[in-house]
């Protein structure tokens, strides 16, 4: 047992919680979530202490919970989980003037160094020194109290709920992807994958002015959701189609044209191959999902048609845009929050994560609510 685990065992949340107790959802090891007590943090200069209210469960959270890893990042020590979050400012550190106690804010979970070349270019999501919630070894935000730099907390207008504020994090991925892809007025867009990120990419593409959006998946229920709630103009189940037949059906849905942009939110070899067949010469493919670590794809054909392929890693400079999209009503994320779990109890956390993992009962986005 590690020194940290020993400390956590001694601080188990089975005891009576006082007014300033700080229960946290801690991933001790794969498939073991515990509610532990940590000390209530004091905000350092430039920070605020927040009382967390809403924390969404992301696919990466589920990966850490179920496998102990996500991509190249691996869990070695117990870690507070969660990074899609919103809360209320409770205390100000020295020098904070941009926020006040009682402000409702969305938290951007990554804090970059602001000194490296990538940060200086404005691409701080690529900062090698970034500290990102719930990315080992950095603790996340599934706790009653969290301290965070005020500069990375964004005040929410009255028209935007705390749940919507927490949704700014996955929405940021979609905003960043559509910016990378160059989605604009009149774009013909193919979205591959109708999970939460695919649905959000569909919504953002519509908000950015895309004229036709086609969504593919192998789940009829999620495709129906994309058509009803995410603004998809056409949906196609590709389960029983080979890539050439699927490309023909997609082209028919695009009024006989090829796509200007493909947003691959599944990240599988099959979806990347389909994207390469569907995108027009000079078009763009944005690899958003991280499903396959290696792929066999027709790169020579893509090169001869000058198809640009863009990667997406998290996001940068997106939160103000996300809040504006939500406040204006141009993007409505409320239907995506299909399941809610209340409190910081182990039974509630286990049920919430299992629901997110299995997409049980039509789950799209699972939201945890932390009471005052």
UniProtKB/TrEMBL annotation:
Keywords: Metal-binding, NAD, Oxidoreductase, Zinc. It comes from Cyanidioschyzon merolae (strain NIES-3377 / 10D) (Unicellular red alga). GO terms for biological process: sorbitol metabolic process. Pfam families: ADH_N, ADH_zinc_N. This is NAD-dependent sorbitol dehydrogenase. One of its GO terms (cellular component) is cytosol. One of its GO terms (molecular function) is L-iditol 2-dehydrogenase (NAD+) activity. Belongs to the zinc-containing alcohol dehydrogenase family. Its cofactor is Zn(2+). Residues 28-368 form the Enoyl reductase (ER) domain.
């Amino acid at each position: 047992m590690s020194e940290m685990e020993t400390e956590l065992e001694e601080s188990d949340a089975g005891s009576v919680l006082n007014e300033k107790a700080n229960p946290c959802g801690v991933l001790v090891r794969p498939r073991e979530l515990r509610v532990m007590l940590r000390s209530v943090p004091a905000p350092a200069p430039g920070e605020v202490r927040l009382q967390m209210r809403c924390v969404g469960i992301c696919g990466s959270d589920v990966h850490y919970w179920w496998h102990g890893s996500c991509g190249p990042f691996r869990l070695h020590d117990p870690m507070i989980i969660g990074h899609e979050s919103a809360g209320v400012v409770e205390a100000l550190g020295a020098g904070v003037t941009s926020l006040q106690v009682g402000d409702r804010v969305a938290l951007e979970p990554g804090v970059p160094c602001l000194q490296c070349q990538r940060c200086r270019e404005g691409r701080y999501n690529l900062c090698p020194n970034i500290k990102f919630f719930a990315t080992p070894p950095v603790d996340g935000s599934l706790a009653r109290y969290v301290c965070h730099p005020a500069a990375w907390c964004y005040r929410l207008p009255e028209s935007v709920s705390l749940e919507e504020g927490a949704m700014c994090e996955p929405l940021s991925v979609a905003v960043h992807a559509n910016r990378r892809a160059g989605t604009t007025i009149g774009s013909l867009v193919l979205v591959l994958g109708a999970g939460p990120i695919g649905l959000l990419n569909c919504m953002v593409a519509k908000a950015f002015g895309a004229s036709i959006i086609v969504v593919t998946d192998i789940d009829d229920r999620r495709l129906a959701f994309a058509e009803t709630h995410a603004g998809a103009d056409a949906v196609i189940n590709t389960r029983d189609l080979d890539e050439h037949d699927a490309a023909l059906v997609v082209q028919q849905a695009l009024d006989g044209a090829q796509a200007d942009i493909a947003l691959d939110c599944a990240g599988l070899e099959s979806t990347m191959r389909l994207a390469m067949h569907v995108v027009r010469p000079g078009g763009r493919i944005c690899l958003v999902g991280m499903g396959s670590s290696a792929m066999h794809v027709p790169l020579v054909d893509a090169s001869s048609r000058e198809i640009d392929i863009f990667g997406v890693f998290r996001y940068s400079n997106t939160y103000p845009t996300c809040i504006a999209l939500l406040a204006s009503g141009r993007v409505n994320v409320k239907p995506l929050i299909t399941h809610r779990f209340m409190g910081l109890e182990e039974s509630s956390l286990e049920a919430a994560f299992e629901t997110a993992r299995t997409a049980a009962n039509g789950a799209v986005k699972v939201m945890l609510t932390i009471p005052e």
